[in-house]
Design a protein that fits this description.
Oligomer: heterodimer
CATH architecture of chain B: 3-Layer(aba) Sandwich
Distance between the termini of chain B: 46 Å
Distance between the termini of chain A: 45 Å
CATH architecture of the largest domain in chain A: 3-Layer(aba) Sandwich
Largest sheet of chain B: 7 strands, mixed
Number of helices of chain A: 12
Largest sheet of chain A: 7 strands, mixed
Number of domains of chain B: 1
Number of helices of chain B: 9
CATH superfamily of chain B: Thiamin diphosphate (ThDP)-binding fold, Pyr/PP domains
Structural class of chain B: alpha/beta
Strand content of chain A: 15-25%
Radius of gyration of chain B: 17 Å
Helix content of chain B: 25-40%
Strand order of the largest sheet of chain B: 2-1-3-4-8-7-9
CATH superfamily of the largest domain in chain A: Thiamin diphosphate (ThDP)-binding fold, Pyr/PP domains
CATH class of the largest domain in chain A: Alpha Beta
Shape of chain B: globular
Number of strands of chain A: 15
Largest interface: A-B, 39 and 37 residues
Strand content of chain B: 15-25%
């Protein structure tokens, strides 16, 4: 049976069902439902909830829980995610699995509290210091908030990597019926690299500091190999009405939701349009877009920012097709009529 | 023949990277002895700082994690809340704990986290070559106070124990030193008491160890311990700052 809930709540339920042991958060709009909901749920379940003194501390508490091999997460919105970058870089270097949720709002700076997609670069190109990647998941509905939160921990543990769910204030706040269809995860094993006291084994340490000549270079090569493997195995995307399309819209998250309506509207107006939606932003479906650009000659990237993912679309297309952009930032929302106008002028 | 003194099991048999005459080696040993005596080694998860003790995981013979600069109390909170049956302590210097990490320190203390903090105060940033620390004394010359610390420009030395004593969340705070055998024995007693405080689930304890840093103070080891005795501990008086163990 489906239940009508907000995106932020569905995300909490997904994480809890996946066996989330520890949550650390800090208040910021538009993600406040997450700490509020978990402050009750986690305590009732005899799990850990701490309201931290800062975003920095919350992210470092996640780091602390993660070194002991349990499922831990934090959530925030854009300005707060900037503050968490220190711990995120450390976790990437220390190869710690964890979930970080960004319910994006308008920026730069304090911005506003409307939904936005301005943190694409920050999420997929780094964010913190050093050469690293996160697995970045982009839900476009409340059901996917639940499912991606649930699946994120298996991914994080499989590759020992922090996973980010990059969503936004619109999906976080909107209500939709959700099928809570995932089984409760119980009795999760503590991995063999975790710190749990050196009983009957030699002591372990977890670190990102590698001062011996050549060690950090080797570590970086190993990280890049891991990211390559992730790119080969974990790309997820969805297509809609692309077989006969003259134009393919590329969009993620809420922008993909609006674009899907625009595709239907455009087809009623006789314009053959399809939608390509990445579900994973890292790994990005570059190979798939590259293949599409052999057959399709027009791409339009629609985003709630001033052109971020479009750069990755252009890299994938690599000059083989025409790539245009439509977007708005700072809480502005691209409408399906605006997309239709753009499509009409496109051909 | 009986062996009456040996290396603690909690210390690895490696040479330490600390400078000649530095206090860190003594403090490491005291911690290791206390961990052994309280049979905590196999349930310990320690948190190393950024600073001179950044390589602590290479010296202690138990599980240790790295933490970003100043964040050990937050990292320790994450570890201990998730694993209340483990023994968790942080090892931090003055810059780590009272400058970049002051917020994490105060809030972990205020929440009364059931962890132990070992705070090594040597009045300067040792690892980076001896810059002014929050605990640098008035008039003390460092790499970034070439004319001596001037309160008008640089503020005053922070007395962390006294500051934390005002918080209801703290249980046991003591300032000790390691400049002579008598004080080393006192320091060990304080560390052991703080560890016991955590075992008994009495909440947050912090031991501030006034330590010597001859190289960055541009002194010989002997001059350095004399300076601790004659100057340093005049500004940072030794003793129990707060003890509410019996009330918690």
């Amino acid at each position: 049976m489906k239940k009508l809930v907000k995106g932020n709540i569905a995300l909490c339920e997904g994480a809890i069902a996946a066996g989330l042991k520890s949550y650390f958060g800090y208040p910021i709009t538009p993600q406040n439902e997450i700490p509020a909901y978990l402050s009750k749920k986690m305590i009732e379940l005899k799990r850990v909830f701490v309201q931290a003194e800062s975003e920095l501390a919350a992210a470092n508490m996640v780091l602390g829980a993660a070194v002991t091999g349990v499922r831990a997460m934090t959530s925030s919105s854009s300005p707060g995610i900037s503050l968490k970058q220190e711990a995120i870089s450390y976790m990437a270097g220390m190869e710690l699995p964890a979930l970080i949720v960004n319910v994006q709002r308008g920026g730069p700076g304090l911005g506003n509290i409307s939904g936005s997609q301005g943190d694409y670069f920050q999420s997929v190109k780094g964010g913190g210091h050093g050469d690293y990647k996160l697995i970045v998941l982009a839900p476009n509905c409340v059901q996917e908030m639940y499912e991606m939160a649930y699946d994120s921990f298996d991914l994080a543990e499989k590759y020992r990597i922090p996973v980010m769910i990059l969503t936004d204030g619109i999906i976080g706040q909107m209500m939709e019926p959700v099928d809570f269809n995932r089984p409760e995860r119980e009795k999760l094993l503590i991995p063999n690299w975790a710190l749990d006291g050196c009983k009957n084994r030699p002591p372990r340490s977890l670190k990102s500091l590698l001062m011996k000549d050549g060690d950090l270079e080797k570590h970086n090569f190993a990280l890049q190999e891991k990211y390559k493997t992730i790119s080969q195995n974990e790309v997820k995307y969805e297509t809609f009405e692309i077989s006969d399309a003259d134009i393919i819209i590329c969009a993620f998250g809420i922008a993909a939701r609006i674009s899907k309506s625009a595709v239907c509207l455009a087809r009623k107006n006789g314009i053959k349009v399809g939608l390509f939606r990445p579900l994973t932003l890292f790994p990005f479906p570059s190979k798939e877009i590259s293949e599409l650009s052999q057959r399709f000659k027009n791409f339009l990237s629609v985003e709630l920012n001033h052109g971020q993912m479009v750069e990755d679309v252009r890299l994938a297309v690599n000059g083989k097709a025409n790539v245009e952009f439509l977007g708005k930032a700072g809480g502005g929302i691209v409408t399906e009529l605006e997309i239709l106008d753009k499509l009409k002028n496109f051909l | 023949m009986n062996k009456i003194l040996s290396k603690p099991e909690s210390l690895k048999d490696v040479s330490l990277s600390y400078c000649p005459g530095c206090g860190h080696g003594i403090i490491h040993r005291l911690i290791a002895e206390c961990v052994d005596e309280l049979h905590l080694r196999e349930k310990t998860i320690a948190v190393a700082p950024v600073g001179c003790a950044v390589f602590a995981y290479d010296y202690f013979n138990f599980d240790v994690t790295e933490a970003p600069h100043g964040r050990p109390p937050a990292v320790a909170t994450g570890i201990k809340r998730t694993n209340p049956d483990k023994f968790v302590f942080t090892y931090q210097g003055d810059g780590d704990i009272a400058a970049i990490g002051m917020s994490e320190t105060i809030h972990a203390a205020n929440r009364g986290e059931n962890i132990t903090v070992i705070f090594v105060n040597n009045a300067n940033y040792g690892m980076t070559g001896g810059q002014m620390a929050p605990t640098t004394l008035i008039g003390q010359i460092t790499q970034t106070t070439p004319f001596g610390r001037d309160p008008k420009r640089d503020g005053y030395p922070i007395k962390l124990c006294e500051l934390l004593a005002t918080l209801d969340g703290t249980t046991y705070l003591e300032r000790v030193s390691v400049f002579n055998p008598q004080n080393i024995i006192k320091a060990k007693k304080a560390i052991k008491k703080a560890f016991q405080c955590q075992i008994d689930e009495k909440g947050f304890s912090l031991i501030e160890v006034i330590s010597q840093c001859p190289v960055d103070w541009s002194m010989s080891p002997l001059e350095a311990i004399r300076w601790v005795e004659e100057v340093f501990i005049k500004s940072f008086p030794l003793g129990v700052i707060k003890d509410k163990i019996d009330e918690k």
